[in-house]
Structures are given as C-alpha cells and as structure tokens.
Amino acid sequence: MCASLFWGRLGRWRGRLNLALGATVNTYVAAVKSFLGFAHRVGFTRFNAGPLIKLKKAPRQIAQRILSEVSVAMFIGAAKTDRDRLMFDLLRGLRVSELVSLTWAQAIGRDSGEAQLEIIGKSSKALQVAHTGCDRSPPV
C-alpha cells in the first residue's frame, strides 16, 4: 500500500512539473533519484527505487538562443555610448569573462587606428587580437 501511494504521488508530482522546461524537470527528477539512492544507502528503504525513474530526454535548445548576424548588428547599433558599442562588438569574439577582465594596459593603439588587445583566455593563455575601429585613446 505504501509503495503504490508513493509511486502515485511521484507520478502526479512529475505530471505537474511538465509545465516547466525539460531541463528543469530533469533537474528536479534527478534530485529525487539521488534522494532515493541516499535513502537506500542509509538503510531507510529496502531497495533503491532511483534507477526505476527515467529522465526524459530534453530537446537541445541552443539553436534558438543564437542571434543572427543582422540581430547582432542591430543590437550593437542600438548602444547609446561608444563604450557599450565596443563591448557589444567585442562580445562577437570573446567570452564574457574575457571581456570583463580587460584592462587599458591590455589595449595597444596602432597608427592605423586599430587596437591590439591581449586577451587572457582559458588556462591563463594570452591571445593577441586586432580590433578595427578603435580610434579613441584611454581616459586619463
């Protein structure tokens, strides 16, 4: 009786979760599976019910989050200040962590109007990147 009551409640709970995104549902269900495994390891239950619960395969949604080149250009054009425009422009080729860690010492102005940026990437590797359109000098 107790087991059927548990499985019934678990099924209804999982049904209510279907209103959320697939990845969110999988996170919650994985937490329940982990808890059931823990309950078995500490002797609270006679068997581990966790493996009986299957996670739903969540659809990959990365393609829906990628902006088109036109959208990115419109986004950059909507920036109100040169600083914001430069940040959005640099985000096309840098990770956010690389962008926010940039300092003026890492930007070298060139006679051609370009700037050479020394980007510190993953594993603290330095990468030299040329950027066009930077004709302003750093503030003093």
Question: Your description of this structure?
Answer:
By secondary structure, this protein is α+β, with helices and mostly antiparallel strands. The protein folds into two domains: 2-52, no CATH class; 67-131, no CATH class. The protein is built from five helices and three strands. The chain has helices at 2-17, 22-41, 69-77, 82-90, 96-100; strands at 107-109, 115-120, 126-131. Strands 1-2-3 form a three-stranded antiparallel sheet, with no helix packed on it. Helix 3 (69-77) runs antiparallel to helix 4.
List keywords for this structure.
single chain, 140 residues, alpha+beta, 2 domains, three-stranded antiparallel sheet, 5 helices, disordered C terminus
Quick description:
This protein is of the alpha+beta class. The chain has 5 helices and 3 strands, in the order αααααβββ.
Number of domains: 2
Instruction: Specify the number of helices.
Output: 5
Beta-strand percent range = 5-15%
What is the C-alpha radius of gyration, as a whole number of Å? Answer: 26 Å
Mean pLDDT: 77
Largest sheet: 3 strands, antiparallel
- Class from secondary-structure proportions: alpha+beta
Number of separate strands: 3
Globally, the shape reads elongated
Low-confidence stretches: 134-140
Give me the side-by-side strand order of the main sheet.
1-2-3
Residue share in helices? 40-55%
